[in-house]
Amino acid sequence: MYHRTRIRLAATVAAAGICALGLTACDSGDSGDTVTDKPKAKASASATTDEKPAAEKPEKTATPGVAKAGDTIALKGLEDGSKLDVTVVKVADPAKSSDEFSTPGSGKRFVGVQFKLVNTGTAAYSDSPANGAKITDTDGQQFQPTFADITAGPSMSSDVRLKPGAKALGWVVFEVPKGSKTDTVQFAMNSGMANQTGEWKLS
């Protein structure tokens, strides 16, 4: 009886060890939702050769702590090999409608954000990018994109398809209250369903 109890105990400990190993392996993956506001480091323009004078210290590339307009954030999609470098190029606040048919509602204004997308992955990218964008004001209110064309430039296509290495550029327009101060803009792949979200500071 004692011998059987020891066997059962040993089996339980072994099984627990295997489960623990499996849990660790599962947890090491990027399976949870994350918001990243860290821009990619920009290459130094002076770093054209590997040779440096002995007295000269290597030049450090300054990377801002929080992404803002002009910065690029590397994002991943849900599928293997699905990656984008996303840049908030410019912000137009307020933005002016390019025609008389699309105007902001009473007490509201248009805010335009120009996005640049570069497919850095190994899989083709196909999506409606505006679906993955939203803007937040300093009070925490979030606003989704609206269908509007602005004088700042062409809108982002609603059907972007990029092979690896290809890029797309266009404006995404939001309708926000006139009294709201925009704070951040976010973008996620897979029409906003991807686990990783990029965030840029606007104020």
TrEMBL record:
<feature type="signal peptide">
    <location>
        <begin position="1"/>
        <end position="25"/>
    </location>
</feature>
<dbReference type="InterPro" id="IPR029050">
    <property type="entry name" value="Immunoprotect_excell_Ig-like"/>
</dbReference>
<dbReference type="InterPro" id="IPR029051">
    <property type="entry name" value="DUF4352"/>
</dbReference>
<dbReference type="Pfam" id="PF11611">
    <property type="entry name" value="DUF4352"/>
</dbReference>
<protein>
    <recommendedName>
        <fullName>DUF4352 domain-containing protein</fullName>
    </recommendedName>
</protein>
<feature type="domain" description="DUF4352">
    <location>
        <begin position="83"/>
        <end position="188"/>
    </location>
</feature>
<feature type="compositionally biased region" description="Basic and acidic residues">
    <location>
        <begin position="49"/>
        <end position="60"/>
    </location>
</feature>
<feature type="region of interest" description="Disordered">
    <location>
        <begin position="30"/>
        <end position="68"/>
    </location>
</feature>
<keyword id="KW-0732">Signal</keyword>
